[in-house]
Amino acid sequence: MPDTPAPPQPAPHSPDASVAPHSPDASAAPHSPDASVAPIAPVAPVAPKQRISALDALRGFALCGIIFVNIPQTMEMFAYAGQMPTPLRLFFLGRFYPIFYLLFGVGFGIFLRSARRRSERPRLLLVRRFAAMAVLGGVLHLLQPGEVLLPFAVTGLVVLLPLSYVPVRALLAAGVLLLVAGVLAGVGGLGLLPGLFALGFALAELRVPEGLPDARGRLLLTVVVAAVTALAAYGVITLGAPDVAQIRLGMVLSLATAAFYIAVFLLLLRTRAGAALSWVLAPMGRMALTNYFTAALLFVPIGTALGLRGSSQWGLAVLLGVGILTAQAVVSNLWLRVYGYGPLEWAWRCVTYWRWLPIRGSGDGAGGRAGA
């Protein structure tokens, strides 16, 4: 050991979808004067514990809602929304995908922010990340035509990559404009994807996720504003607005309901029930890519065997979704007790960094302190 301390070096940063609020990459604390000239650390992800567990749990929550639309949609159980049971149509259809879109935008923003400190060519890593997701999406599309991984990859390359060069305030403005344009276009849920991706990306650059522990007041305000907006949009729709307006109001309703869900869920994590929610949902969220992909591998053949295709057996479809989610919750928790990443998450990282990375890590699948 040398007699004098070595100059400070930047600590490792996680390129994952969530970074712990105490990680150097996730804090706004000033860096050492030497940080700007310090050599770039080896390009590789670090321990999965450096995460914001609230984001992992929220991502798991979104997965739980998405499957109850994916199953009947893929099984062709409805041709238009009016054919769905009212609870599914009001509380699930289009309500959870916006959360998923936003969180993936946040994840890509955190990843690039970390990659800038870990690599001389951070956007090359991001392009590899999108390319790998496109391959996964292309494979999944053969089984589930309505999957979102391929649109995620295309939107990332076409929208996020160019926007990564603009200042963060301009990025936030671009996200808002793209979201408004998506609503006005009235082309359905995927029309919201570019705006929500850009907004999530901007929120990551502004370090909003790291401020969640101190955001109670803003979350309560979001609950009120989102509830009023959702009720107003629903009221106008039920009064018989023209079709062209109903489509756009429906998208506003979806966004407002998603914002309401996000704020209420994050507030619930602060209560006594929060530990239990995080214990169940955070491991699912850490393995979101694996769980999203394997859900289709399960519900397509099982749903077909059960005779769901083209049927109106909504209760059976819901039970199938509950069964798959239960299995994924158990497997995710047990898997992350041994391994640091889910199988597809690990493969995604290997492609991103173009090297073989260890999959084992200090797992905390029981929802231990892995972040905020």
Write the layout of secondary structure elements.
Layout: H1 53-74, H2 86-91, H3 97-118, H4 122-143, H5 149-163, H6 168-185, H7 193-205, H8 216-238, H9 243-268, H10 274-286, H11 288-305, H12 314-338, H13 343-353
Helix pairs in contact: 1-3, 1-10, 1-11, 1-12, 3-4, 3-7, 4-5, 4-13, 5-7, 6-7, 8-9, 10-12, 11-12
Q: State the separation between the terminal residues, measured CA to CA.
A: 35 Å
Report strand %.
under 5%
Order of helices and strands: HHHHHHHHHHHHH
Radius of gyration of CA atoms, rounded to a whole number: 21 Å
Number of helices: 13
Q: What is the oligomeric state here?
A: single chain
Characterize the main sheet. Answer: none
Number of domains: 3
Q: Could you say which overall geometry the principal axes of the C-alpha atoms support?
A: globular
Which residue ranges are poorly predicted, with pLDDT under 50 across at least 5 consecutive positions?
1-41, 363-372
Q: What structural category do the secondary elements indicate?
A: mainly alpha
Overall strand count: 0
Short description:
By secondary structure, the protein is mostly helical. It has 13 helices and no strands.
Describe it.
InterPro entries: Bact_Transport_Assoc, DUF418. Residues 14-34 have a biased composition (Low complexity). The protein is an all-alpha fold and 372 residues long. The chain folds into 3 domains: 66-78 and 271-362, no CATH class; 96-205, no CATH class; 215-270. Helix content is 63%, strand content 0%. It contains 13 helices and no strands. It has helices spanning 53-74, 86-91, 97-118, 122-143, 149-163, 168-185, 193-205, 216-238, 243-268, 274-286, 288-305, 314-338, 343-353. Helix 1 (53-74) crosses helix 10 (274-286) and helix 3 (97-118) crosses helix 7 (193-205). The chain starts with 52 loop residues before the first helix and ends in a 19-residue tail after the last helix. The relative contact order is 0.16. The model is unreliable at 1-41 and 363-372 (pLDDT under 50).
